[in-house]
UniProtKB/TrEMBL annotation:
Domain (BRO1): residue spans on this chain: 1-371
InterPro entries: BRO1_dom (IPR004328), BRO1_sf (IPR038499), RibonucZ/Hydroxyglut_hydro (IPR036866)
Protein name as it appears in the record: BRO1 domain-containing protein BROX
Transmembrane segments annotated in the record for this chain: none
Length: 531
C-alpha cells in the first residue's frame, strides 16, 4: 500500500502539470486533436449500480483530463484512509494523522478540483466526481481521526466528561455528513452502504457520548437526570435502527449493553437516591447543550484539568468588527457553525480570506475578497482610517502541490506600522525578507507528533521575529495546554514562553513579548509619530 501511495504522489503532480500546459495551448491544432481522441474510463466503488450490476463492473467514460485527476485524487484519499486503518493497531498517532491527511485530500477535491470539471459533465457520472460526496468523505475521515483520538484518550485515563464531548463531536461531524448526503440531489446514485455506514457510526458514538455524559451527571449528584439521559438516548436509537443486517447486529449488541447500564442506574436510583427522573420534554435541550457547549461543560462538573482552559465568548460579547481575516480553509480556522451566526449578525461584514475557503464563504458573506500570497487589499474602518492587508504564504494543507494557506501583513498608512499574523508559524523566508513588521502574532511553543510538526515555534518564531525586525511579539497559546489533559498526551509540546524569551533576547534584545488574556483587548503602544 505504501508503494501505491508513493506512485500516486509521483503521478498526481505530473497530471496536474499536464492539465495546466494543455489549458495554456488548448487552441493548438495538435492538442485539440489529441484531447478529442482521449478515452478515459473508470469504475466506481460508490455508485449504487456497482452493487446491483450482475454482469460486472460498470464503466463511466468522460473524456477529460480533469476527470482523470478527480478519480485519481479520490483514489489517493481512499488509499490514505485504508493505510490509516492498517496502521491503527500499532500506531494511534500515525493513524490519526493519516485520517486527517485523507480528510484534507477530500476537502481539496471537493472545493478546488471538482468545481472545474462541472462544465464537462454531461449525462451520467460517478459519485466520486460529485463535490458533495467528497465533502462527505472529508467529514467521515475527520470523524475517523477523532475516534482514534478517543481510543488514545481512554488509554491515558482521560475524564469521562471530555470523552463525552469528543464522542459528541463525531456525532456532529457524521450528522453533517448525513445531511449533505440526504439533501444533495447529485448524491442520489451513491450507494446506500455509505448512508448506512454514516448512520450506524453516528448511533454508536451517540450511545457512547450519552453514556459518558450520564457519568458526569452522576458525579455531580444529578442521578435522576443521568437516568433520564440514558432512557432518552436508548429510545432515540431504537427508533433509527439501520437496515443492513451486519450493522443491526453491531448496534443490537451496543443497545443490549446500554440497556443493562440503564437497568443498573434505575435500580440504584430507586433504592438509594430516590431522585425524580425528568421527562424527555424537559431534558432534550439540556442534554445537547451540556455536551457541546464549552461554557456548560465547564460548569457541569468537568474538572479544571480536563485538557482545555476555555474562555467562552458569545457573539454579543464581540465588539463591532471592521473586517474578518481568515487564514486557512479547514474547520479549526474557518468553522461553518461559528461563521453562520456571525454572517447573520453582520451580513455585510468585510471578509478577507484564502481562496481555499471560497466554497464555504461564498454562501455566507456577500463582501469577500480572496487574496493569493502577494496580493493585497485596502480596509476602511468605521472611524474612517484605512489599512492595507497583504497576504503571505502559509502552510500547505492536503496534497503537497496544493495552493498554500495564508498569513497576513496588516499595514498602517504609509507603512508607519505593520502587524504580521499567521497561526502555525509557517512562512516563506524569501517572500518575507524584504518586509518589516512591528508586531507579530505567532505561536512560540512547538506542537509535535512523531516525525511531524503540527505547529512551529521557539527558534522558528525567533527567526521570524528577526526576519521582520519585530518590536512586539504576541504569543498564541495553542501550545499552552494543561499537562494533565488529553491533547498533552497526544501532542508533545517543545519549549515554553520563557524559553522563547531567552532565545529572543539573544537575537533581538529590544523586542518585547506581550502575553494576551483571552477575551481581554491587548493594547500595544504605537510609535509616537502615529495617532
Amino acid at each position: 500500500m505504501s508503494q501505491v501511495l508513493h506512485n500516486l504522489e509521483l503521478y498526481l503532480p505530473l497530471l496536474e502539470n499536464l492539465i495546466l500546459h494543455v489549458d495554456r495551448v488548448k487552441s493548438h491544432r495538435q492538442i485539440v486533436r489529441w484531447t478529442s481522441e482521449l478515452k478515459i474510463q473508470w469504475t466506481s466503488a460508490l455508485s449504487s449500480s456497482f452493487f446491483f450490476n450482475l454482469i460486472g463492473s460498470k464503466y463511466f467514460q468522460i473524456n477529460n483530463l480533469r476527470f482523470e485527476l478527480c478519480m485519481t485524487l479520490f483514489l489517493y484519499g481512499a488509499i490514505i484512509r485504508e493505510r490509516a486503518l492498517e496502521v491503527l493497531p500499532a500506531d494511534l498517532v500515525q493513524s490519526a494523522t493519516l485520517f486527517r491527511e485523507a480528510a484534507g485530500v477530500f476537502h481539496h477535491l471537493a472545493h478546488q478540483v471538482i468545481p472545474f470539471l462541472q462544465h464537462s459533465l454531461i449525462g451520467e457520472r460517478p459519485p466520486e466526481v460529485v463535490s458533495s460526496v467528497s465533502a462527505v468523505m472529508s467529514l467521515i475521515c475527520l470523524g475517523d481521526a477523532q475516534a482514534v483520538t478517543i481510543k488514545r484518550a481512554k488509554e491515558k485515563g482521560t475524564t469521562v466528561g471530555l470523552l463525552a464531548k469528543l464522542h459528541h463531536g463525531i456525532v456532529e461531524l457524521l450528522d453533517e455528513a448525513a445531511g449533505v448526503l440526504h439533501t444533495a440531489r447529485e448524491c442520489k446514485d451513491t450507494s446506500l452502504d455509505v448512508a448506512d455506514f454514516i448512520s450506524s457510526c453516528k448511533m454508536l458514538h451517540e450511545l457512547q457520548a450519552q453514556k459518558y455524559f450520564a457519568e458526569t451527571l452522576k458525579s455531580s449528584n444529578q442521578f435522576g437526570v443521568a437516568v433520564a439521559v440514558l432512557r432518552f438516548t436508548l429510545t432515540n436509537v431504537k427508533k433509527n435502527m439501520p437496515g443492513k443486517e451486519s450493522w443491526k447486529s453491531v448496534i443490537k449488541e451496543e443497545i443490549d449493553n446500554f440497556s443493562e447500564l440503564l437497568r443498573k442506574h434505575e435500580h440504584e436510583n430507586e433504592f438509594v437516591w430516590h431522585e425524580k427522573v425528568p421527562s424527555e420534554e424537559t431534558l432534550s435541550g439540556r442534554v445537547v447543550s451540556a455536551v457541546v457547549s464549552a461554557e456548560n461543560t465547564v460548569q457541569s462538573g468537568f474538572s479544571g484539568t480536563d485538557g482545555f482552559k476555555l474562555t467562552y465568548l458569545e457573539l454579543s460579547d464581540i465588539p463591532e468588527v471592521d473586517c474578518l481575516l481568515i487564514t486557512q480553509s479547514l474547520d479549526d480556522h474557518c468553522h461553518l457553525k461559528t461563521l453562520k451566526p456571525l454572517s447573520k449578525k453582520y451580513p455585510n461584514l468585510r471578509v478577507i480570506a484564502t481562496p481555499n475557503a471560497k466554497a464555504l464563504l461564498d454562501s455566507l458573506f456577500s463582501n469577500v475578497t480572496y487574496l493569493e500570497p502577494g496580493q493585497s487589499s485596502i480596509i476602511e474602518a468605521g472611524n474612517g482610517s484605512t489599512v492595507k492587508v497583504q497576504a503571505t504564504a502559509g502552510p500547505v494543507l492536503g496534497p503537497p502541490w496544493q495552493r498554500p494557506e495564508n498569513g497576513y501583513l496588516v499595514i498602517y498608512p504609509e507603512g508607519k506600522s505593520t502587524l504580521y499574523y499567521e497561526p502555525h508559524c509557517v512562512y516563506n523566508t524569501s517572500s518575507l525578507e524584504k518586509e518589516r513588521a512591528d508586531i507579530i502574532i505567532t505561536p512560540v511553543i512547538k506542537q509535535l507528533l512523531p516525525k511531524f510538526t503540527l505547529v512551529s515555534g521557539q527558534e522558528d518564531a525567533v527567526r521570524l521575529a528577526k526576519l521582520l525586525n519585530a518590536k512586539f511579539i504576541v504569543p498564541m497559546t495553542n501550545g499552552d495546554l494543561d499537562a494533565k489533559g488529553l491533547l498533552a498526551s497526544l501532542v508533545s509540546a517543545e519549549g515554553t514562553i520563557e524559553s522563547f524569551k531567552d532565545l529572543l533576547s539573544k537575537e533581538l534584545p529590544d523586542a518585547q513579548v506581550l502575553q494576551p488574556t483571552p477575551g481581554v483587548p491587548l493594547e500595544i503602544p504605537l510609535p509616537p509619530n502615529l495617532p
